[in-house]
Amino acid sequence: MAAWEQPNIFKAFADTASRSPSKTATAFLGTVYSYTVLKNLAEGFAAALAAKGIGKGDRIILYIPNSIQFVVSWLGIQRLGGVVVPITPIYTPVDLEYIASDTEAKAIVCSDRNYGYVKQVAPHTGLRKAVVTNIADLLPWWKRAFGRIADKVPSGKVERAKSVSFLRDMISSSNPPAPDPQTGPEDVAEILYTGGTTKHPKGVPITHGLFLVSAFEQLGVRDPLFPKDRDVIVGGAPLFHILGQTCSLSTVVVGGGTLLLQPRVNLDAMLDSIHRLRATSLIGVPALYRMILEHDRVDQYDVSSLKYCFSAGDVLPVEVANRWTRRFKLNVYQGYGATETCGGVAMSPTDRPNPPLSMGMKTPSKEILIVTPDTVKPTAPGDPGELLVSSDRMVRSYLNKPDETEKAFVEIDGRLWYRTSDIVRQDEDGFLFFVDRTVDTIKHKGYRISASEIEAVLQEHPAVIESCVVGIPDKKVGERIKAFVVLKKDVKGITGYELIRWCRDKLVAYKIPQYIEFRDMLPKSKVGKLLRREIRSEEKKRLET
Description:
The chain is an alpha/beta fold. Strands 1, 2, 10, 11, 12, 13, 14, 15, 16, 17, 18, 19, 20 and 21 form a 14-stranded mixed sheet that branches. It has a five-stranded parallel sheet with strand order 4-3-5-6-7.
């Protein structure tokens, strides 16, 4: 039985680990961890959680950056039969409280630098246990000591309390093995949060079976270039994001390759890892490829080991793709997916030429329809329309959001389809091309951001009566966020800087508007609906002049 055919994620990982026990599974800050070591760490963490009363089906938030601790915690929770809730470590207390309440999470794994936020929201949620870690916790003792002496290891204050445990202590404790949870393909493995058209992010339940199938076929795109177990992946995408999971983290679950981890994007460290560890794959969003091309020390590193460069999260500009090919004699392969589809709906094949701007061809596990958005009837071949996606193990609903579920999922001839809200076309060879979006989402640095969420925050300001937020096309980051604001008539002296500062206190960093424009009124329909499309059209004309 192949690893991806196992009934759950941890058994798939254990099967992979048994094939190459001494091989390097992950490398983090210069330290390598074999498959055996990684499995033992994950088993130890699961046993410690079980000893604290955490069990099958319990939701546990991961509030830490890319690290060996993330991988150990994620696998350990799978071993336990729990449900992982990975979130970005830059979330504010507002976001953290919402997600903790929405998932009814019982526990959280956080960095010591984020513990203050956890302590702040815990009394208002069901969080009863916090597992705290420092970025250097699982490094050798001499690296931890040197890092602290040289003041290279950031840390935060953590109180000693019954509700607080430390990840390093838990893993080294002697506990009986966690009971086998007997999780199967239809059990929920994790809940990922995605932006969209609502004020709050939406929870997307991913089952074990869906993750394993998606991960295996997205790794399999590289098969014409090298075997899966020889892949050394530089994960330039965060592991709390579906891109980082199915195209990077998946290698230790079903691929048998090696994952190189960084707590944050550092171009010199990333390029040095490629150079020293002979990485074969680079995974990232378009902005990462532009940053590398513009890095003034890129020529100091040998990146000739790379064979597969993958970009997703937004359309890769042709100019960036062409520059990359000229500079490194490598193609950047593109793909298209969503959290709701567990990543890849389309992937660029590596055994044939790909047309410019194509986002690839449909993956085997997915079925697609291209329809007119209003009637949900198929378009003529070659004509653009909204992309609908279906699969045997597909996500069927959002967590606790029946209204959003009804809008996003539709049944056609007895089969359920997810409405992506993206307009695409398909050529006669089966290649898909992105055309436009039908909903008011903004794509910034690979993130899908809800315009209405930012508008709601702006309208909470006592001086603001109305707001409209749109994405402004930008070659470097996809779209920049611009807010149009109407102030109350009796208010004077409010500046754009003050409103941005207001947003900074309530929104995660990548959702903060870069521009504020004040207006006397905003365009509306006859029934009073805000017409964002008109403002987007105005901004497009302004860019063209």
